[in-house]
Inverse folding.
C-alpha cells in the first residue's frame, strides 16, 4: 500500500495549523493594505525560461521542473528508429532542458518582474503590491526548512526614492509589533557600500562575489572563521576589513558612518551607498513602529544576486536564520522588457514567524484554542432529523457556527464526540424539548445544563 | 527576449481580480465555517503513487508531473556505458514513471483521503473539512478552461448518514444565495439507482461505464445524440431508457419516484438509491436555503469514477458547465488505509462562479470599485519628507489606508497619479500647511478642497 505521508519536505496543515497561519497572514495583509499595497497573485508555475538564470547556479539546481507532456515528451524519450548507431548514443544523453518546459515558482520577485513588464500600460506608474503565496525549492529538508513554504512579499515598483525603503521598513516593523514581537532588529546595508569597502580593502573585483559570501557568515562563524574562508579562497585584504567591521560594530551609528566614509574614501558609489543609508535612517527616525531596532550592519550581504542598492534583514535573538529580508533591485525588471524600472521589496518568511510564535506561545487564545463550532446540535431519532436541521438553520441565520451530529445515536456518544471536538455548547433536542419548543443547552466547560426556549439559545451562548 | 506572458493556460491576477476572488472566497469560507467545517490545506504536489490510478485514464494523462532531480534523474537520462547494444535500445525508451516522482494536485478529494488515512487518530470521528486551493490539469486551454484553477471543497468524513448530504446541499445553496444567485438548480442522482436503471434497460454490466458517459451528455446533445452514442458503442436498450428519462423529466418528483421504482423493479441497490434520494429530499424540505431548486435528475452521471452513492451538480441557465458538483465516495479513503471510511463532499468551481458574477455584474460596489487606499499624501520637497511620513503614520494609526507619493515631485504630477489609482482623497502637505499644523484635503470625486487641522482628516474622509 502506498505511503499516506505528504511528499518529502512538504506538510499537511490540519485545522489548528491553518487557523494560526491565517491569523498571521491576516495581520500581514491588513498592515500591507494600510500602506496602500495591493494584492497580486501569479501562477504556481512559470515557463522555464522565465526563471532560468535569475537565481544563480544554486537556484537552478533547486528548482522543481515540470515534465513535458504528450507528443513533446515522446519526442525526447521514445525510440524513433530501430537502428543502433550514432544517433542513439546522442539521444541517451538527455538534457533537463529537453524534458521540461515549466518550473514551480522559486520566489515571488521574479514573477513580479515578469508581471510588471507584461502589464506596464495597465499598471500605475508606481505599483505597490503585496503577494502571499507558496514557493517551492528542492532543498534538503531540515528542521524548519521545507520544500514548500510561504513568502509574504511587499514591493514598490517605479521609484528609486528612499522613501520606498522607509515605508517598507515601517510596514514590516508594524507587522511584527502587531504580532507581538518586541525584540527584533532590522539590519541595513547597501550593495554599493559593500563593493566600495571590498575595493578599499584591496580585494579584486573578480573576488567580490566570493568575499561577500564569506562576509555574510560573520555572525555565524566569527571573525576567525571569515579570515579562514578568505584565506581558503585566496582573498587578501580581510584583516583590514574585519578590523573595520569590529570598529564600527560597537559605536553609535553616526560615528560608524564617519569611520566608514573615511575607509571608502572617494569611491563614488560607496559614498552614494552611505548617503542612501543616512537618508533611510533620517526618514525612519520619527516613525512609530521603528525606534532603536533599525541598525546599519556592514557585514550583511544577502544571498540573492539581483540586489543593486539597499539590503535589509530582520532577526530575533532566538532564531538562527532571519524572519525576512529584502532590498533594492533596479536591474531585474529590465531583464524582461525594454524598460529598466527601479524596484525595492521585502519578503517575510511565514514559516519562520510561525515557528518563533509557536515556541514563545504568542497566539491569542481565540486562535490557540479555537473550536470548529459555537454549538453542536444532537439528533434524537430518525423521526426528529428535520427538527435538528431546522434548529441548525435558525441558529446559523442568527450568526452562530453550528455543527449537527450527523446521525441518530446514543446521547452519550454524541456528547463524547462534542467533547472531542471542543465545542463549548451542546443543544439537546429530544422529543420532550421538541413538543415544548424548547432545547436543553449544555455548557461543556462548566457542565451546567438548562432547558430554555429555542429563541434564547443565541443569547445564552453569546454570554 | 523571453515572453512575459504567464505559462499557457494560467493567469496573473492583478489587484482588481484578486479582490473579487477574495470576496467570493470570503463568503464561501464564512458559510462553510457556519456549518462547522474546518479548514485544511495540503501541499501543491503529492507523491506520484498517491495520485496514480485515482482519476481514470484521462486523469493520468492530464496530470502535471514533476521531473526527478539530481542523481536520480541522471540515472535515467545519462549514458552509463559507451557500448552500443541491447541496453542502449532499452534505455532510449524511457517511461514517464522513470522520470517523475511527484505530481501537482489534480483535485482536493484524493489529498483529503490521504490526510484522513494518515491522521486517523488525531482527527475527530466525524471530520468536516473545507479546502480552498488551486489544482492543476494539463487540459487544452479554452474559454473558461484553465490549467490552474481553484476548487472550493467541502467534505464530511466518517458518516454514511444522509444528513451529511442535506447539510452539504444546504451549505452550498446558502453560499450561492449570499453571493446573489437566485436561479440555480441543484440536480441530484444516485450511482446505485443509475446502475439499476441500466440493468433494467438490459444494458450489460461491462457497458455500464460507456453508457454513463453517453447519458451524462443528454442535456448537451439531446435524446437523438445519446441514441447515436449508444449505437456507436454497440449498447442496446437505449430506447427504453430514454423513454423513461423523458417520462420522469416532466412530472412531479413524487410521481417520478414511483415511475422509477416501477422501472427498476426489485433491483435492491437501485431501490436503496431511490430511498436515499427520497430521504435527502425530506431532510432538505424545510431548510431556508433550499426550496424549489432541488430536483432529482436521473440523467446526471458525473465523470469521476470514485463516486458510490449520491451524486449532485449545480447549474445556472447562462453557463454551459456546472458551478460545482459532488457526491458520496465510500470507497476512496480505504484505498489509502486499512479502514474503509464513508465520505461525501461537494466542490464549487471558483472560476465558473466568477465568470457568471462578472457577466451579470453581481459584485457589490465596494469590491467592483475598490481603491488601493483611502487617501494619498503628497510630498512637497526633500525637506518635508519626514512630515509626510509622520502624517501617514498618524492616519494609519487611526485606521485609514494611506499611500504616500514616493518622491518630491510637481503637485500636478502627484495629483495625476492619485487620479490614476483612484484614491478618493489627497492630502496636500505644503510648507504653509506644515507651519500651521494643517493639511489641504482634496476630494478627488467632487473636486472640493478644504484646509483643515490634521486631526480632522480622519473624520472628513470617513463621512
Amino acid at each position: 500500500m502506498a505511503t499516506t505521508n505528504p511528499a518529502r519536505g512538504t506538510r499537511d496543515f490540519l485545522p489548528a495549523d491553518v487557523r494560526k497561519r491565517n491569523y498571521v497572514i491576516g495581520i500581514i495583509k491588513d498592515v500591507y493594505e494600510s500602506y496602500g499595497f495591493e494584492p497580486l497573485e501569479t501562477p504556481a508555475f512559470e515557463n522555464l525560461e522565465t526563471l532560468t538564470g535569475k537565481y544563480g547556479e544554486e537556484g537552478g539546481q533547486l528548482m522543481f521542473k515540470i515534465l513535458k507532456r504528450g507528443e513533446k515528451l515522446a519526442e525526447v524519450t521514445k525510440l524513433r528508429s530501430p537502428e543502433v548507431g550514432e544517433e542513439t548514443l546522442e539521444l541517451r544523453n538527455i538534457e533537463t532542458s529537453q524534458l521540461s518546459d515549466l518550473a514551480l515558482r522559486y520566489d515571488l520577485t521574479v514573477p513580479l518582474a515578469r508581471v510588471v513588464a507584461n502589464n506596464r500600460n495597465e499598471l500605475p506608474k508606481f505599483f505597490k503590491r503585496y503577494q502571499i503565496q507558496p514557493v517551492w525549492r528542492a532543498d534538503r529538508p531540515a528542521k524548519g526548512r521545507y520544500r514548500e513554504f510561504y513568502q509574504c512579499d511587499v514591493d514598490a515598483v517605479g521609484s528609486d526614492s528612499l522613501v520606498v525603503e522607509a515605508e517598507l521598513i515601517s510596514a514590516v516593523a508594524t507587522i511584527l509589533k502587531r504580532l507581538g514581537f518586541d525584540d527584533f532588529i532590522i539590519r541595513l546595508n547597501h550593495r554599493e557600500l559593500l563593493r566600495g569597502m571590498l575595493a578599499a580593502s584591496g580585494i579584486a573585483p573578480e573576488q567580490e562575489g566570493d568575499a561577500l559570501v564569506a562576509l555574510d557568515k560573520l555572525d555565524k562563524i566569527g571573525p576567525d572563521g571569515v579570515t579562514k574562508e578568505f584565506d581558503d579562497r585566496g582573498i587578501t585584504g580581510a584583516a583590514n576589513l574585519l578590523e573595520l567591521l569590529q570598529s564600527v560594530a560597537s559605536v553609535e551609528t553616526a560615528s560608524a558612518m564617519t569611520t566608514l566614509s573615511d575607509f571608502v574614501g572617494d569611491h563614488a558609489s560607496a559614498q552614494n551607498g552611505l548617503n542612501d543609508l543616512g537618508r533611510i535612517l533620517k526618514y525612519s527616525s520619527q516613525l512609530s513602529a521603528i525606534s532603536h531596532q533599525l541598525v546599519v550592519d556592514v557585514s550583511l550581504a544577502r544571498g540573492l544576486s539581483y540586489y543593486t542598492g539597499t539590503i535589509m534583514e530582520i532577526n530575533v535573538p532566538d532564531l538562527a536564520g532571519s524572519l525576512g529580508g529584502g532590498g533594492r533591485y533596479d536591474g531585474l525588471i529590465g531583464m524582461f522588457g525594454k524598460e529598466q524600472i527601479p524596484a525595492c521589496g521585502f519578503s517575510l518568511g511565514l514559516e519562520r514567524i510561525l515557528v518563533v510564535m509557536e515556541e514563545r506561545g504568542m497566539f491569542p487564545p481565540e486562535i490557540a484554542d479555537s473550536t470548529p463550532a459555537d454549538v453542536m446540535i444532537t439528533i434524537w431519532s430518525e423521526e426528529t432529523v428535520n427538527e435538528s436541521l431546522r434548529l441548525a438553520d435558525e441558529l446559523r441565520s442568527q450568526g452562530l457556527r453550528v455543527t449537527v451530529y450527523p446521525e441518530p445515536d446514543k446521547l452519550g456518544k454524541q456528547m463524547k464526540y462534542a467533547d472531542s471536538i471542543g465545542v463549548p455548547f451542546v443543544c439537546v433536542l429530544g422529543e420532550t424539548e421538541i413538543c415544548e419548543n424548547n432545547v436543553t443547552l449544555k455548557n461543556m466547560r462548566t457542565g451546567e445544563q438548562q432547558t430554555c426556549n429555542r429563541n434564547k439559545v443565541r443569547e445564552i451562548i453569546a454570554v
Q: What stands out?
A: The mean pLDDT of chain B is 91. The longest helix of chain B spans residues 15-34. The CA atoms of residues 375 and 402 of chain B lie 5 Å apart. Chain B touches chain A through 120 residues (CB under 8 Å).
